[in-house]
Structure formats: C-alpha cells, structure tokens
Design brief:
By secondary structure, the chain is mainly beta. Helices cover 12% and strands 36% of the residues. It has a five-stranded antiparallel sheet with strand order 1-2-3-4-5. Strands 6, 7, 10, 11 and 12 form a five-stranded antiparallel sheet that branches. Strands 9-8-13-14 form a four-stranded antiparallel sheet, with no helix packed on it. Its main location: membrane.
Length: 272
C-alpha cells in the first residue's frame, strides 16, 4: 500500500443525531443524514483525490470532488445544496485545502503508526458440513482470517481445476484490529478420490496458501476423511452455515432465489 501504482483509501464519517434517539431509545432503522470524507492516494502522496460525500436516508445526494474543485449534485435532492455551496467562496476554498489539510496530513500520521504499508498474513481453514444428511451435497466453507489489506483472492479447485458452480462469496468482515475475515462456500457432490482445494492469494504472501479437503467414500456415504479434522474450523459448529452463505433456494420452475451478491462499495453507495 502506498507503493507505485497501488491506490490507498482513507475513510472518515460522521452520523447526525436522530431526534427521538436520545435517552437510550432505539435508533430508527434508517438514519437521516451522514457525511463521509474519502482520500484516494496513488504513488504515496504524489496523486491525491479528496471527496466529501453527503448521504440522506442511505443515499448519496451531493459531494465535493477535489478533481473538479467544486461541489456536484449526485441526485436531484442535492442540486440546490451543491449550487449554494459553490457560491460560498470561503467554504469552497476550505474544501479545496482538504487534499493537504486532511488527506496528506493523515497519510503522514498513519505512515508513522505503521498503518500505511502494513500487511497481515491470512490463516486459512476448511469446514465441511451437510445441511441435509440424506442429500449427496456437501457444503465446504473456506474460512480466511486475519488478513490486511482487504483486497484478497480466494478460489475453489476440484482436482486441480477451478470450480465456479456452487460457489458463493460472503462479505469481507472487519475484526476490529485492522484485519479482515472472509468465508467462501462451495456446494458440491464429492466423488471417491476427489480432492478440493481452497487457494488464497494476498499481498502479504510470497506464494498462494492452499488447503486441501478430501471426502470419504462414495456420495451419500456417511463420514468424512480423518484428515478433515485438521482443517475443521472451531468457530463454525458442524452442520452450521452462516445465513449469508446459505445456498440459493429453487422455486417450482427451477429458478434460483436469494442469489448471493456482494457488490463493491464506492463513494456513491451507502457506507457501512
């Protein structure tokens, strides 16, 4: 991170207090207003782009973009605000200084604290389970933990060949210690002799991590190979699959429902 050709992203946000949420009362499901400051670095601080994004009811309506040097409306709701803010020369000048005042300054702070350029190697395990004991299908969870930065590539291989059908990706979850975890599910019907591999590539690794799993016997035969116990994840009890990775249901016409999708987030999307 921060090296040549590698972008670095810095985010900061603020959530406005919602009337009626004081005194321990439950916060409404949708917040009313949120701001997010975003810095995009390329080649260290050689190229810096500063964005100040404004959200109402989970939708971005306006933003300041240092690449344009002005506010711009994202939706019709933000048109009036963007025009008014652009007429305020003092506010506009203040936002223009955000590249140095906010982005470059915080970059130096994070660099001194070993945040910029920090890398943490992932650990990988496989957890097999069956949702239906009578079904020949087996659910394999590849669980990747403790990696940083968030960019990572996880793939399933069957007998050395990439598997694409029956694969579902969960979301990268923050662990609260500047590391992330990810689960990737494979629903398959193991045959005698099949070997499944979870392969992980990450910036912290010189070579990919590979973890293998092999079923026991023919499809439908109870039990798993004893080698599985080495890879079984202790935090995922046998027979349990996270709801976000439940295989899609099929309707009466044979079509899939509840298709798992994890879109990439950008400034125009609701921040976490």
């Amino acid at each position: 991170m921060g090296s040549v050709g590698v972008p670095l992203l810095l985010l900061a946000g603020a959530l406005a207090r919602i009337p009626g949420s004081e005194g321990g009362k439950e916060t409404p499901a949708h917040f009313l207003y949120q701001e997010k400051s975003e810095c995009r670095f390329l080649n260290g601080t050689q190229r810096v782009r500063y964005l100040q994004c404004y959200f109402y009811d989970r939708q971005e309506f306006a933003r300041f973009d240092s690449a344009r040097g002005a506010y711009e409306a994202v939706t019709a709701l933000g048109k009036g605000d963007a025009e008014a803010w652009n007429r305020d020369k003092r506010l506009l000048q203040y936002r223009k200084t955000g590249v140095d005042r906010f982005c470059r300054r915080n970059y130096e702070v994070f660099q001194s604290n070993s945040v910029v350029g920090r890398r943490a190697k992932p650990t990988v395990s496989i957890s097999p389970t069956k949702l239906d004991p009578a079904s020949p299908n087996t659910i394999l969870l590849c669980i990747v933990r403790g990696f940083y930065p968030v960019e990572i590539e996880v793939r399933w291989l069957k007998n050395g060949r990439p598997e694409e059908e029956g694969v579902a990706f969960g979301e990268e979850l923050q662990n609260g210690d500047w590391t992330y975890q990810l689960q990737v599910m494979l629903e398959t019907q193991p045959q005698r002799g099949d070997v499944y591999t979870c392969q992980v590539e990450h910036a912290s690794l010189e070579a990919p991590i590979t973890v293998q799993w092999a079923g026991k016997g023919n499809p439908g035969e109870e039990g798993l190979d004893s080698s599985v116990s080495r890879f079984r994840d202790p935090q995922v009890p046998p027979g349990c699959v996270p709801p976000s990775l439940q295989p899609p249901r099929r309707d009466q016409g044979g079509g899939e429902q509840n298709e798992i999708q994890t879109p990439l987030q950008g400034c125009s999307e609701t921040p976490p």
